[in-house]
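Input chain follows. Return structure tokens only.
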Amino acid sequence: MSKVFQNSDLAIADVFESASIMLGGFGLCGIPESCIAALARHGVSQLTCISNNAGIDDFGIGILLKARQVKKMISSYVGENAEFERQLLSGELEVDLIPQGTLAERIRAGGAGIPAFYTPAGVGTEVAKGKEIREFNGKLYLLEYGLTADFAFVKAWKGDTMGNLIYKGTARNFNPMMATAGKITIAEVEELVPAGTLDPNEIHTPGVFVQRIFIADKNEKRIEHRTIQTESHAG
């Protein structure tokens, strides 16, 4: 059966109410823009979104938050989204804030079939509340559980028709590990090539982890904070 879908709307058409979804990216880099836009059109709600961050008010997951499609956010950084803040403070949105390294490892563990692990991150803080704590070699560790999701949306630079993926630059962050942790992984790519044409040594995500792939129709690639050097400091 072909993994190639004609567009984003077809690729995400079976995302259901109250589904859990992992969304790759770091800041606004490497986010699955096309899948997010299609999900907004699809209109399902009560979603649990697992992502490093919550986008900004009018881009990324911010689009889904504004449309009230998200019930719960599991993430490590949410500081750029005023609507997220408003929903959190008003009690409209459930939030599970996780240290960034712990979030990455929980996703990696889930994708590797590891149910739980111990980490020192968060010991003695709010993060530790209600969690099992054990001592190893004189140091305290928290028990954390692996994360999986009904769907994983990832963005890659190039992919082939078998679902093999290559990421470019900072987009190679949460995308590869999320691709392994979704029951159904949907990849949007900037360039889609025939199977067998990618150098096996350059593949970051093997096609066995990807169930659907399509050519992205949104590649806006916004910059979260553009910083430039002023002329007065150029010398």
